[in-house]
Amino acid sequence: MFKPVNVAILGATGAVGTELLELLESRNFPLNNLKLLASSRSAGTHLKFKGESIKVEAVDEKAFDDVDLVLASAGGSTSKAWAQTIVDSGAVMVDNSSAFRMNPDVPLIVPEINPEAAANHQGIIANPNCTTILMAVAIYPLHQVQPIERIVVSTYQSASGAGARAMEEVKIQSQAILKGEDPKAEILPYPLAFNLFPHNSPLTETGYCEEEMKMVNETRKIFNTPHLKITATCVRVPVLRAHSEAINLEFKAPFSVAQAREIIAQSPGVQLLEDWQKNYFPMPIDASGKDDVLVGRIRQDISDPNGLELWICGDQIRKGAALNAVQIAELLMEKSLLNIAKSSLKV
Amino acid sequence: MFKPVNVAILGATGAVGTELLELLESRNFPLNNLKLLASSRSAGTHLKFKGESIKVEAVDEKAFDDVDLVLASAGGSTSKAWAQTIVDSGAVMVDNSSAFRMNPDVPLIVPEINPEAAANHQGIIANPNCTTILMAVAIYPLHQVQPIERIVVSTYQSASGAGARAMEEVKIQSQAILKGEDPKAEILPYPLAFNLFPHNSPLTETGYCEEEMKMVNETRKIFNTPHLKITATCVRVPVLRAHSEAINLEFKAPFSVAQAREIIAQSPGVQLLEDWQKNYFPMPIDASGKDDVLVGRIRQDISDPNGLELWICGDQIRKGAALNAVQIAELLMEKSLLNIAKSSLKV
C-alpha cells in the first residue's frame, strides 16, 4: 500500500523500544529496512524481529544517513543530543521524550485527536506524555460534542511508568516485605511495594510536579485550547503495568451520562467497559497489553449539574507511548508526510 | 480525674476491636470494668489488656446490664441487632458501623470538629466512615477560616479497610503473582495485588458507591453544611494499611497556601508533612500506626483562583475508626454525658 521505508528505533533495548518492535511487527508496518540503535552500553545485543535477529548498533553521526523515520524512545537527553543530526539528515523523528513537546515548531499528536497537526511538521513530531495521552484520547470525543471547561484529575500510575527496572524493584520490595524484611528503594525514591507516593518527577515553581504540568500543558496543546482549566495530582501506586485516572470533567452545559456512554462506545482508541450489576469497571490488569484505553464508571457529578466523572485505565507503554508513536508514523505514511524537503528546523 | 466506668467492646476480636483495646490501655482510659463481647463464634478466646488476660464473652440480652459505655465495632447488622438493648439498658453506645450515622436522632462526631453535637445524644453516637473522618479532620480547620464551596476527592484506600482478611489476601495474592501463579480473590471481588479497582461497596442509584456517598453525606452532617457540594471517587489500592486522598477544595474566595499551611500546622488531629526540597510528602507507611492525619503538598489550584489541592494520608483503623471512637468516649466523660436519664430512643 505504501512505499516501504527505512526505520530506525533509537533506544531499541528499553521498555518502549521493545514494544515499538512488537508493534511494527504485529501491525505489519511497511518496512524496507529496520535499524536498531542504542547507547554504546547496549550496542551489540541482538533483538528478534519477524523471526530474524537484528544487532543493536551504537548511535553515531552517520547512523541516520539512510533513514526515513526515527522512532526515538531513549529519553530526553538522547533525543536532544541527536535531534539536529536526524533532522539535518532528512529523516523525520517521532520523539517519545518530553524534549520538544512544548516547542511551537513541533506538533504534539494523538492521531485520534489532532492528526491535521502533522501537516506542519518540520522534521520532529512529539509523542505526548503517557498519562496525558490516556486522558486525552478518553475525553476528547466528549469535548468535541460539548466543550470541556475544567478538568480535575487524580492518577494512579504503575511502576512501569518509571521503567522496567522500577517494575523489577517493586517485585523485589514486595518479596522483602512478605518475608518481614525492610524494602530497599534504589530506582524509585521511596519504597513503592504496599505503599504509594506523589509522583517523583521534579517539582516546578507552581508546586505541581513535572508530570502534572505535562498533563496541563500538553493537553492544552493537543486540544488547541490554550486556556483550558486543568489541575492534576499524579501518584505512583504499586501496580506493575497500566495507569488509571479518576477524571472530573466540567462542561459548559449538562452532558447526559447516556450520551457520554454512547459517544465513548463509538469513538476510536477507547473502549467502554462497565458492568454496573457486577460493580465491574476498568482495572490495570484489564488494560495491560491492550491498545484501547478502557473507560467506565461514567457518572453524573452530583456536585455539579454540568459535570461528569470518568474512570479510565490504559497501558501507558502501549497507547501511552509505543502505539501512539507507531500510529503517528502510520499517519505520516498515509499523508505522504515522510519525504519532506530538507528542514531548516534548529533545535 | 473521672469516675471510672464500665466499658464493653462489642466486636472485640476484629481489627478495630483490637485497636480499641490498645487505645484504652495506652490512653489510660478511666475504666472500672472492661467487658469484651463478640459473636458466639469468637467467644471463649482471650485477649490481653494491661497484662491481664480477658475472656471474650458471647453477646446476649443481659450483656449490657452493668455497662456504662459500649464501643461497638462488629458491623452494621450487629449494631442494629443490639442497639435497642444497649439503649434500654441505660448504656451509651459509640457505634463504629454505618447503621445509625444518618439517623437525625444520632450525633455523628469527629471530636476535633463538632464535639458540641454530643450534648444531644439519646444513647447512641455514631463514629463516621474512615475515609470521611480522615478528610474531615484535615479540611475542617480551613473551612472554619474560609467556607468550602465544593470538594472533589479521589481516594487510595488500603486493603485493611476491608478487614484483616483482605489484608492477608493481598499478601497471598502477591506471593502467587511473584511466583508466576494466578492470584485468587475470595474476600475482595477482584485481585488487588499489583492491581487496583473502584471501591467494591454496593452502587447506589446515583452511580456512586456507598463509600463515596458516605463521604458526601457524612461530611455534610459533621460540618452541618447540608448543601456542601462534594463529589468522590473511591478506589482500593494494594496498600496494606492507611488510606490516602487527593483533595481538591474550592473556597468562596482565594485561600493562600502559606495561610493554609500555618493553619494545618496548628490544628488538632493533623500534622503538616512536607519537604519540597526532597519531594517528600505523606505516604501510607508514614501514616500507619499514627494518631494524626498527615497533610502535605498544599498547592494553589492552577485551574481555580479560589482552589487548593491537598494530599493526605491517615491510618483508617486508628483515627479513621478506633481512635475517633475512644476520643468520643473521652468527650462523653469530660462533658459528663455518659450517665443520662433512661433514653426513649427507638431504633
UniProtKB/TrEMBL annotation, chains A, B:
Annotated pathway: Amino-acid biosynthesis; L-methionine biosynthesis via de novo pathway; L-homoserine from L-aspartate: step 2/3; Amino-acid biosynthesis; L-threonine biosynthesis; L-threonine from L-aspartate: step 2/5; Amino-acid biosynthesis; L-lysine biosynthesis via DAP pathway; (S)-tetrahydrodipicolinate from L-aspartate: step 2/4
E.C. number(s) listed in UniProt: 1.2.1.11
Ligand binding (substrate): Q157, E210, R236
Active site as annotated: C130, H243
Matching SMART domains: Semialdhyde_dh (SM00859)
Recorded catalytic activity of this chain's protein: L-aspartate 4-semialdehyde + phosphate + NADP(+) = 4-phospho-L-aspartate + NADPH + H(+)
UniProt GO molecular function: aspartate-semialdehyde dehydrogenase activity; NAD binding; NADP binding; protein dimerization activity
Keywords recorded for this protein, A-Z: Amino-acid biosynthesis, Diaminopimelate biosynthesis, Lysine biosynthesis, Methionine biosynthesis, NADP, Oxidoreductase, Threonine biosynthesis
GO biological process, one term: lysine biosynthetic process via diaminopimelate
InterPro entries per record: Asp_semialdehyde_DH, Asp_semialdehyde_DH_beta, NAD(P)-bd_dom_sf, Semialdehyde_DH_NAD-bd, Semialdhyde_DH_dimer_dom
Entry binding sites for phosphate: R101
Binding site for NADP(+): T13, G14, A15, V16, R41, S42, S160, G161, P183, Q316
Stretches assigned to the Semialdehyde dehydrogenase NAD-binding domain: 6-121
Gene3D superfamilies xref list: Dihydrodipicolinate Reductase, domain 2, NAD(P)-binding Rossmann-like Domain
Functional description taken from the UniProt entry: Catalyzes the NADPH-dependent formation of L-aspartate-semialdehyde (L-ASA) by the reductive dephosphorylation of L-aspartyl-4-phosphate.
Quaternary assembly: Homodimer.
Family: Belongs to the aspartate-semialdehyde dehydrogenase family.
Official protein name in the record: Aspartate-semialdehyde dehydrogenase
Gene: asd
